[in-house]
Design a protein that fits this description.
Helix content: 10-25%
Largest sheet: 9 strands, antiparallel
Distance between the termini: 130 Å
Structural class: alpha+beta
Keywords: Membrane, Transmembrane, Transmembrane helix
Number of strands: 27
Number of domains: 4
Strand content: 35-45%
Shape: rod-shaped
Amino acid sequence: MYKNALNDVFHRLGNVFYLLGKPNKIKRKVNNKFDKINNIIMKHTIIMSLLAVFLGLMSCEKGNKDEYPEIKVGKGSESLKEISINKLTERKIVLSGGNEKFLANVENSKLAQVTIHKDTLKIKGLFEGETFATITSHDRKAHLKINVIPQEISISQDYILLHPRDESKFVSLTGGGDIVNLDVDDPYGILNLKWNGKTNILEINALHEGEATITAVSNGVASKTLKVVVRSEGNLEKLGYYSSYSRTLSHIEPKLVVKRAGVGTWFTNSTVPYGVNDGFNQRSAVRVGEILNPQKGQNVQVEIKSFPYPTSFSIGTGTYPVFVEEVRDTTFVIRGKGFKFVLPKPE
């Protein structure tokens, strides 16, 4: 390329010497020719310089590309590959590597939200599920699996002692997934419950003595149990019937107690085991069927009969589930729905 340019220069110089007899005109032509030659040389010089700079930059770029480290997610010795985050909570993770300028996007923006602030990745859980975040820095990439899980179930109390007919008790229940179910184990119907899902408040009313458990259950998290014990105040020292529908036990003291092996025990308000109705006054009585070898904590079915009519006594005739609450030397206590009996032990 330069050889052709020089040949062209010499050829044009020959023409210049041929025209030496015309000084002014020749001078102008020579100057014009040299200007054109200089322009050609300058253009080629600039092109070659730019080409050299471009090749140098490409060489540096290739060298720098090999020098960028892999992106590291987190501060630990190993880059995080997976995290779990609760719904509606945020987690911050430090990033390093690449050229220290990061971008991030999430596969499913309905489940999680990701943003970058300098070298920190911010992740916010929105709805339960699995998705992936992709972090890029120059030509480096890292992938992070995001599990959005429900928050652990929390109950403000795990044990409550109440009295029948007292004011309501309010318990806060939080966490769990989109659906939280309450499993209530209340065999004797001691509680009246009202659940407000908007405020996550459970209102508990105690009706009579007994024990119950309330378990909050939701998919993906451990269940949480609340134990409720309802007790009436007062002592169970005397034989007979006790009502447990109020804060204090109400005792009906019998005038006569009759125990018959294989049959049961009578409690009567008169001297007649089967009650009296003389047209003016009614003296009721009740018979509790025999419970052989009662054991504390035992659930049994017992037959109870009211006299002289099925509804004469405070508790009517029927078969009732009862709980053996206490066993003493000569007596034992059974508890049913709203009532208690202190009975003589069978011989």
